């Protein structure tokens, strides 16, 4: 054991000396279009936060508020969002990845889907609500297997969500379907679109 | 001048021999487990796959890759890794493996032929998995369609590309305790400890690593790095509280991908949620949150 810790020390020491110095990264403030879209994202985050609190029963449910917040989100998605991503704009504190322009169609489709789903949430706002706590009904959190996708002749076979670039890329429910769901379910689908896009096209720097 | 050349040659030979000798040293790993009698349950195994995020790494979802047929590139300072094809294909997958081989890979980091795996494969965590979980997972892995296609090879520079590199690494840093393993049962703290430190391998990204890619266990959960330099924040109880997390909103985030500030997870953590924690039972989500927020862990 002693030999082991000694050897460990030696090898780490060698690696320390040999390691390249990491370049210091300038962290300039956001300007121009990057600043605009970061503010836009922050604004949408605030709307989602307010919506989540209502969906989880932490604040009183107010259908007119839900409609207004969903409308704000719709107004900042689709083309309103993609126009704020000119090719190569990842300077400064931007967390956007170059993947956006390599797979623009997917990015664009998710932005469109967010607009459509936020619109559907406006329509769903007056529907009867589902289970208040958790939003688990949509997300499969309550069932062992996550809603049957593992079933049928083996694990994960052909189930939509593991195939072809994640659940939402064209694979999500139609907006008309969403509009007929309980509002918390529609909300869960909408935020899944945020998540799917951030999974593919955003990288946290810190 | 001849003597100095000889000296160099001698040093190289000696260095080579010491590495070889070091690699040949017996490793204080526990003996391989015998799982022959355990009957796997496919449905339960599919859930274990969600707990351990197998699909997240072994499926190239973004490029429409088939389930478990090989993963998207994992970029590290040591090179780019591709999680291999682990479908039951006999040529390019693990169709010729036995349950014992599978257990050895997960808990010992070795191929059936005894070749060491790189620590990008989190066997240092899976080592803790229960026999039951391993047997069930094996059944589930065997239930996916075989894919007769190799995953892309790792892209790693010499000398890290040789078996010596992971062999040395394992001898330096891989010393799983030889103790009885259980899945934590109904006690949330025990279950949470099992999930976080075993199958869910939170520390693979959230614990900092040294220059050789070994986790700094003194600074467990103090924040680390995911693929391609992506930052994984600290998830100690204090750090979580300071960042506005509560047990309740953490459970909600692991279920939905939504953080308390209305933002959603990005990159690797979004993948973890979408391919894993989204499918966890309420009990397991509660267990892992209880454990992470506990003052004293383990």
Mean pLDDT of chain A: 77
The helix/strand series of chain B, from N terminus to C terminus, equals: HHHEEHHHHHHEEHHHH
Structural class of chain B: mainly alpha
The share of residues in extended strands of chain B comes to under 5%
Helical coverage of chain B, percent range: 40-55%
Mean pLDDT of chain B: 88
- Total number of beta strands of chain B: 4
The largest inter-chain interface, given as chain pair and residues per side, is: A-B, 56 and 56 residues
CATH superfamily of chain A: Cytochrome c/b562
Largest sheet of chain B: 2 strands, antiparallel
Structural domain tally of chain B: 2
Description of the structure:
The complex is a heterodimer of chains A (206) and B (298). With 206 residues, chain A is mainly α. Chain A has one domain: Cytochrome c/b562 (Four Helix Bundle (Hemerythrin (Met), subunit A), Up-down Bundle). Chain A is built from 9 helices and no strands. In chain A, helix 2 runs antiparallel to helix 3 and helix 3 packs antiparallel against helix 6. By secondary structure, chain B is mainly alpha-helical. Chain B is 42% helix and 4% strand. Chain B contains 13 helices and 4 strands. Chain B is globular. The model of chain B has no long low-confidence stretch (mean pLDDT 88).
Structure in a nutshell:
Chain A has 206 residues and is mostly helical.
């Amino acid at each position: 054991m002693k030999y082991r810790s000694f050897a460990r020390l030696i090898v780490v020491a060698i690696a320390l000396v040999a390691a390249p110095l990491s370049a210091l990264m300038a962290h300039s403030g956001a300007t121009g279009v990057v600043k605009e879209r970061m503010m836009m994202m922050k604004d949408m985050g605030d709307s989602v936060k307010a919506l989540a609190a209502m969906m989880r029963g932490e604040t009183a449910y107010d259908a007119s508020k839900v409609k207004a917040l969903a409308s704000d989100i719709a107004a900042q998605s689709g083309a309103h969002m993609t126009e704020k991503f000119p090719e190569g704009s990842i300077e400064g504190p931007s967390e956007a990845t170059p993947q956006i322009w390599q797979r623009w169609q997917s990015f664009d489709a998710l932005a469109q889907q967010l607009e459509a789903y936020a619109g559907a949430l406006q329509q769903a706002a007056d529907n009867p609500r589902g289970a208040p706590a958790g939003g688990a009904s949509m997300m499969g959190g309550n069932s062992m297997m996550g809603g049957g996708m593992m079933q049928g002749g083996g694990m994960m076979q052909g189930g939509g969500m593991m195939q072809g670039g994640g659940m939402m890329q064209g694979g999500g429910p139609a907006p008309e379907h969403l509009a007929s769901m309980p509002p918390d379910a529609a909300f869960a689908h909408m935020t899944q679109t945020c998540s799917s896009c951030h999974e593919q096209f955003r990288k946290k720097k810190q | 001048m001849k003597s100095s050349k000889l000296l160099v040659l001698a040093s190289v030979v000696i260095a080579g021999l010491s590495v070889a000798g070091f690699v040949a040293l017996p490793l204080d790993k526990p003996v391989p487990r015998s799982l022959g009698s355990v009957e796997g349950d496919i449905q339960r195994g599919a859930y274990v796959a969600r707990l351990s995020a197998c699909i997240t790494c072994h499926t190239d979802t973004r490029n429409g890759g088939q389930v478990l047929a090989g993963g998207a590139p994992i970029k590290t300072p040591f090179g780019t890794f591709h999680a291999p094809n682990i479908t039951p294909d006999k040529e390019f997958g693990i169709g010729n493996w036995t349950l014992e081989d599978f257990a050895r890979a997960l808990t010992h980091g070795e191929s059936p032929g005894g070749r060491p795996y790189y620590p990008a494969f989190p066997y240092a965590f899976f080592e803790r998995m229960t026999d039951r979980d391993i047997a069930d997972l094996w059944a589930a892995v065997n239930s996916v369609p075989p894919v007769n296609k190799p995953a892309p090879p790792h892209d790693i520079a010499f000398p890290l590309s040789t078996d010596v590199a992971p062999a040395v690494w394992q001898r330096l840093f891989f010393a799983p305790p030889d103790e009885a393993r259980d899945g934590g049962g109904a006690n949330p703290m025990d279950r949470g400890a099992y999930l976080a430190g075993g199958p869910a391998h939170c520390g693979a990204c959230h614990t900092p690593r040294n220059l050789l890619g070994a986790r700094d266990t003194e600074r467990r959960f103090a924040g680390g790095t995911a693929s391609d330099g992506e930052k994984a924040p600290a998830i100690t109880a204090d750090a979580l509280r300071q960042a506005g997390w509560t047990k309740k909103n953490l459970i909600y985030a692991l279920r939905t991908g939504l953080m308390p500030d209305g933002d959603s997870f990005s990159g690797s953590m979004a993948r973890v949620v979408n391919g894993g924690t989204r499918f966890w039972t309420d009990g397991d989500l509660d267990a892992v949150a209880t454990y992470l927020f506990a003052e004293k862990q383990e």
